[in-house]
Amino acid sequence: MDQPHGEYIVIKAKDQGVQVIGLTRGTDTRFHHTEKLDKGEVLLAQFTDHTSAIKIRGRATIMTRYGTVDSGD
After folding, report:
1. What's this model's pTM, rounded to 2 decimal places?
2. Cα–Cα distance measured from residue 59 to residue 35, given in angstroms and rounded to the nearest whole number
3. Can you give the residue ranges of the Tryptophan RNA-binding attenuator protein domain (predicted)?
């Protein structure tokens, strides 16, 4: 896929209570979905017509086709 639409990312929590927040597309950016991950839990997330960004709070490893990054360090 050449477009970010439909692309997946994998988020693995390094600590308890990592928050994953989906943000909407459009003229007003809003939170539309929130997940809380415990240490070791993995979430597979997808960019869609409604999700243009994903915000991660806490220590996690984020894996994409572009590489891997750690948050909260």
Report:
1. 0.81
2. 14
3. 6-71
